Amino acid sequence: MMGAKPARVPIFPLPGAILFPRAQLPLHIFEARYRDMVRDAASSDGRIAMIQPIGLEDETRLHKVGCVGEIVAMDELDDGRFNIVLEGAERFRLIREAEVDTLYRQADVDLAAFVEGDPIPLGPARRSSVEDEARKFGDALGLEVDWEAVTRLDDETLVNAIAQVAPFDISAKQALLEESGLAQRADLLVQLMQFQRIAPGGPEADQTLQ
Predict the structure, then answer these.
(1) What is the pTM of this model?
(2) Going residue by residue through the chain (210 aa), what tens digit of pLDDT does each one get?
(3) Under a CB-based contact definition with an 8 Å cutoff, are residues 24 and 70 in contact?
(4) Which of 93, 159, 164, 198 has the least C-beta neighbours within 10 A?
(5) CA 96 to each of CA 41, 100, 158: distance values in angstroms, whole numbers, following the listed order
(6) How far apart are the C-alpha atoms of 70 and 88, rounded to whole Å?
C-alpha cells in the first residue's frame, strides 16, 4: 500500500467550482483573502487546492476529496483583482485544516490518496459509450460542439472535461471526482448524462441523482 504524502496547500472552498485532473477551471478572484492567496501561490509553486464545502450556506465544513490545480494563466487587473486559469494536477484527500495566520485557509492533505498516473485506456466500447451519450447530451442542451476535435481527445481528458463543464449538481460532480478510476468515472458520467437528459424538465432542469 502506498504511504501518505502529506502536504500543506492553500484551499479555495468555492461552492460549485470543482476541478478535475487535466481539466481547466477559469476563476475571477476579487476577495482580498483570495487575492493574497493567488499572489502567494504565484510567488511559490503556483498551486491552489479546490475543495467543495459540504453546504452552500456554510463553507466551514469541507468534503474529504479535492483537486490541486496549477496556475497556467494569470492576469492581474488594475484594481488588484485577478483572472486566473487552474489546470488540475492531482486529487487529494483532506487530512485536517491547518491553523495559519493567512487570511485564506490552508489544509494538510494527502497527495498519495489516489493513483494519478497514466490511467488504463477505456477500451473501444466504453469510449464509444461516452462519446455517443455526450453527443446526445450536447444536442439536448443545444450546444455547438466540434465533435471531430472531441474524438481526438485522450480518454482521461475527454471524461474529465465533460465532467468539468456538464451542468450537473454539486453532489453529482463530487461523486465523479471521488471515483477511484477512470473507467468508473466514465461509467458514472454516462449514467448522469442519460439520467439528466431523459428526466422531466430536460437536461437543464435541476435534477439530483440519489
Answers:
(1) 0.86
(2) 457 789 999 999 998 899 999 899 999 999 999 999 999 999 999 999 999 998 766 678 899 999 999 999 999 999 999 999 999 999 999 999 999 999 999 999 999 998 767 788 899 999 999 999 999 999 888 888 888 888 899 999 999 999 998 889 989 999 999 998 899 999 999 999 999 888 655 555 444 443
(3) no
(4) 198
(5) 20, 12, 32
(6) 6
Quote the distance between the C-alpha of residue 199 and its chain's center.
Answer: 24
Q: Enter the C-alpha cell of residue 114.
A: 489516489
The one-letter code for the residue type at 159 is V
